[in-house]
What we know:
39% of the residues lie in helices and 17% in strands. By secondary structure, the protein is of the alpha/beta class.
Amino acid sequence: MKWFDAGVNLLDRRFNPDDVIARAVEAGVDKLCMITTEPAEWDDAQALYQRYPEHLCYTVGCHPHNAKVMTEDDFTGLEQRLDCPGVVAVGECGLDFNRDFSPRDVQESVFRRQLAIAVKHNKPVYLHERDAFALQLDCLDSVEGQLAGGIAHCFTGNLDAMQAYLDRGLYIGITGWVCDEKRGADLREAVKQLPLNRLILETDAPYLFPKNHRPKSKNNEPAFISSIGRYLADLTEISYEELTQNSYANTCRVFKVAR
């Protein structure tokens, strides 16, 4: 079985990227999408992609936590990078009103700019949202019918929220959150209704270690993605093989990556 981890924070300081990639490939993770969250990461992501072009692709964008750092030069640089080899999406972008690390009006402005850039360059978006769902939908609706798709990254919501994203043509990114019996109840009910052709599996490593994985580890890794797949297969009563194949194909489709 081959896996495509649609979201991994390979540039996190807790990782040695070479070791993480090696363990992932050994575990059958054929492809990984490396997330960037601010301009300071874009060069490093490009350099790492160039070392592993057969296994890596990456996003270019600004996470809402970092919206306050974006300058006009950064927006220009973002646009210039979207045609570079390996760049598959704009993001991680969106809104996060839980911690408010950037002012809310700045978050909204930066998100809307990134949506416009994604439309202009026909790129999908890689979305983050926390405690800002209504405004997130309003921003997405402002480019209705123009986006080249996208992923609701690390989706943790309920059935209504999932359906709202599906109605807007998005894929749903499922992480180890679904394996957490203490906090994933709404998500576990929602994924039972998730169409297979909209399912994306991702680890969001080093975060969200799947609770069913053994042995336990301090940090999550792409190599553990099969544990999410097995848990989800049991939960949805869909065969592990069918779930794996669909997730891989869907990720290739949304990112326009050859299988």
